[in-house]
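Need DUF4303 domain-containing protein's 3D structure for a figure. Predict it.
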Amino acid sequence: MNIQDLIAHIAQATTSVFSALKNEHPDEDFYAFALYTDNSAMSVVAAGNSEQALEEVLKNADERSPEQDAYYRWASSEWLYEAFHGSEFKGVSKTVRESADRSNFRKFKVDVHAAMIEALRTVDVDGLFGTGLDREKIIVFVTIIDDDNAEQFENDSAKQLNSPAAYQRFLNRYDVAGS
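Structure prediction for DUF4303 domain-containing protein:
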């Protein structure tokens, strides 16, 4: 698996998905975009969320608490636009799923995670998530679903992909006043 090709394919799919998301929901205030994979690195998928989409999810939540609200805000699997236009990543997922490099799984997984981060960095430099103050409002990160190390990986990727101030906000994402 050629890592540079993988980065380019992920960046292309990411641009397509997040551009479509913003174009289809132009009046929404997006606060987060993420790429995610599973513990076996069998796929790459995109997710995004806006304040308006979060409110919709929270309206339908069975229970509400500050902790639960923080969870819905930051758990990409709960986002209204989770796996948005997922077919855009079909080729990327096929590439990682069928890669001969899986035989050295530890290295393979590290490479896939690094490619996801680098692809987000690439499209960020191109202005996909905005520029200046608009970009500062959006947190960009990578996560792994159903993995005990997901939160640490999210933090590490967010540190690489966001300004120090945005990264600090992200680190405090589950802090709830009074707890």
